[in-house]
Amino acid sequence: MDYANFKKKYVQDNAWDVSTTLLWEHKNGTVAQIDMYWEDNYVFISFENGPTLDVKLKGSVISVGFHDDHRKRDLGTHPSWNGDNCKLLVKLYLRHVLGQKTTEEQREAIWDIVSNEFVI
Q1: What is d(CA 32, CA 23) in angstroms, rounded to the nearest whole number?
Q2: Mean pLDDT of all residues in 9-38
Q3: If DSSP codes are grouped into helix, strand and coil, which group holds residue 34?
């Protein structure tokens, strides 16, 4: 599976081991480990030099979890959810929640995953 705007980057775990770990490098240089499980609209992201978080969207309820913080919000009551701008609403909510804990490059990488892999 390939992600839009990402390329594969293999790194060796240590000098004594021959196994490698698959990381993903975004076009802006951000490197992360990305795991999408068989659950719809869920992603786990661990940045190389930043936070580890998961994002889940079930219906109109979005959930963003860090190791020390969890935010959950039902966007269904917002007028934009039922209009043409529901993707923009999700993007703005993610920017609001992630604003203090991630860099602009990391937010761009997160949005590329959410906008291309999630069904919104």
Answers
A1: 6
A2: 85
A3: strand
**Gap between the Cα atoms of 17 and 99, Å rounded:** 37
Q: At what angle do helices 86-98 and 104-117 cross, to 10 degrees?
A: 150
Count of residues for the chain? 120
Record the tokens describing residue 53, joined without a space: 């978080």
CA distance 107 to 102: 6
The DSSP symbol for 28 reads T
Higher pLDDT, 18 or 50: 50
What are the beta bridge partners of residue 65? 54, 70
41 C-beta neighbours (distance < 10 Å), count: 17
3-state secondary structure 50-98: CCEEEEEEECCEEEEEECCCEEEEEHHHCHHHHCCCHHHHHHHHHHHHH
Q: What is the pLDDT of residues 51-82, one digit of tens each?
A: 999 999 999 999 999 988 899 999 999 988 98
What is this structure's pTM? 0.87
Note whether 92 and 85 are within 8 A (CB). Answer: no
